[in-house]
Structures are given as C-alpha cells and as structure tokens.
Design brief:
Helices cover 69% and strands 0% of the residues. By secondary structure, the protein is an all-alpha fold. The chain has one domain (5-134).
Length: 135
C-alpha cells in the first residue's frame, strides 16, 4: 500500500517485504524459463515426452498446482497472479519434470482428466435449449 496504511494498521503486504517480492520474481523467472525454453528443448531432444510445447507444460504445471483447471482458480495471465507459494510450487514442479522425478505422463493425463470433467459438467451446445425448456 503506497499511502502507508499498511504500516498504520500493522498489516504486512508483499510491497512491505522486498525480499518476498524478489523471491516471487525469481520463482516466476525460473518457471517461465523452464516452461518456455528448457522443457520444450528437453522434450524435443528426449523424444518420448507426451507434450512438447511451452503452453502445454504451463497447462500441466498450473493445473497441478491448482488441483484443477488453472484458469478456474487464477486470473490470466497466471504468472502475474500466482501467490508466492504457487510460484515456488510451479518452479519446483517444472524442475522435477526436467529432472525426471515427476511423472510427466501422469501429470498430463490428470490435467486432461480435469479438463474433460470440467467440460462434461457443462451442457453440450445442443443441450442448453432443451435444459431451459425443462425448467
């Protein structure tokens, strides 16, 4: 808070702790570097990963840290709205994928399952009119 009200009320904000801002920024930078560059390059060179594109790595990681479809939990763009804990978890999971200690296939399947479940809970495009008539 720029007006000093945080100091007056005794509340702590992220802006009051430059080290928290620095740690969050570092975690975001790590997450973005890994998902935009390092993981896609590794997927290409290793050849047996189920995904290769940067946005797919981001989807899998963000869905995992949200335990569901990420954009149901975090406003877009995610990297600007994630909490400190989420940014650290995202960076750590990206690193675990790179190191082979996280099962990318299982993470991808879970992400897809969350998305299918989300989509099947919504009516199909041909159903809304019928649902409305049944009300």
């Amino acid at each position: 808070m720029r007006d000093g009200s945080a100091a007056r009320t005794g509340r702590t904000t992220v802006s009051d702790k430059p080290e928290a801002v620095d740690a969050r920024r570092a975690a975001i930078d790590t997450y973005l570097e890994l998902t935009r560059t390092t993981l896609p390059a590794a997927a290409t060179s290793r050849g047996n990963w189920p995904i290769r594109n940067d946005h797919c790595f981001q989807r899998v990681i963000l869905d995992q840290i949200c335990a569901g479809v990420w954009y149901d939990h975090i406003p877009r763009p995610a990297y600007r709205h994630m909490t400190q804990e989420q940014t650290e978890h995202a960076a750590a999971l990206a690193q675990a994928i790179l190191d082979g200690t996280a099962d990318l296939g299982a993470l991808n399947r879970q992400s897809i399952a969350w998305r299918k479940a989300r989509n099947t809970s919504a009516p199909c495009p041909s159903e809304p009119r019928q649902k409305m008539l049944d009300l």
